[in-house]
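Researcher: Please predict.
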Amino acid sequence: MANKYFLRALAILLLAVTLQHSARAQGQWIPLFNGKDINDWFVKIHHHDVGDNFGNTFRVQDSIIQVRYDQYGDFNDQFGHLYYKIPFSYYHLKFEYRFVGEWCKTAPSYTILNSGVMYHSQDPRTMPKEQDWPISIEMQLLAGLGDGKPRPTGNMCSPGTHIVYEGKLDTRHCINSSSKTYGKDEWVQAELIVLGDSLITHIINGDTVLRYSKPQIGGPVVNGFDPKQKQDGKLLSKGYIALQSEGQPVDFRNIMILNLEDRMGK
C-alpha cells in the first residue's frame, strides 16, 4: 500500500514538472488583469459588504493594480481581497508584485511588508460582512525588513485550512519556503501551479521554493464565518483567486493564467 501511494505521489510530481516546462514553452497565457480596470474582479473587505471597495483600496494606475490605504484613517482590521470573477481548479498562475510606500501604522505589526495571493478561496458572496479572512490557501508574499535577517517569500499560510506537507497533515498556519529574501520596491515574479486537490507548487523568480498537497478545510484563523461554509476535512479542489490587502501598500502586474484542465482530462 505504501508503494502505491509513493508511486502516485511521484507521478503527480513528474506531471507538475512537465506542465511547468510545457506551459512556459507554449506561452498560452490568458491575462486576468487587462491593465486598465478591475471590472473583471470584485472586492470583499472586512466590515463591508461584497463589492464595496472601501477607501478605493484597490485601484489601477500605469497598468498596475495598486493596493493603498491613504483614505482609511484607522485601519480597523479592514483586511481585504480582490477576487477574480470566476473560480479555477487546475492551472498555472504567474504575476509580479512589489512592496511600496509606507505601512499603515494602525494595522497589525505582522502586516509590515506582507501581502499575499489567495487560491481555492470560498466565494466571497458566501462571506458574512464581519468575516475577516476567506477560507482559502494563501501564497504569502514578504519582503526583507532591512535587518539583515532572512525573510523568505512565496510561503504557505492557511486561513481556515490545512495542507499535507512532507507526507503528513500539517496544521501550522504558515510554512516558510526556501526562497531568497527580496527587498522593498523590488519587482518579484511569482508562480503558482495548482493541480486541483493534489499537488501545489510555489515558484519565485524561476526557482521552485515550496511543494505540498491536499489543501483542505480545517483549523482556526478565520473568524465570523457562516458555519455551513466550514466543513472541516473537505478537500479543496476549486476556488477563487484573490489579491490581498492587509495594511502594506503593494503593487501587482502581469497577472496571467494557463488553464490546465484540458491537459488533466477534466
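Model: The helical segments are 2-26.
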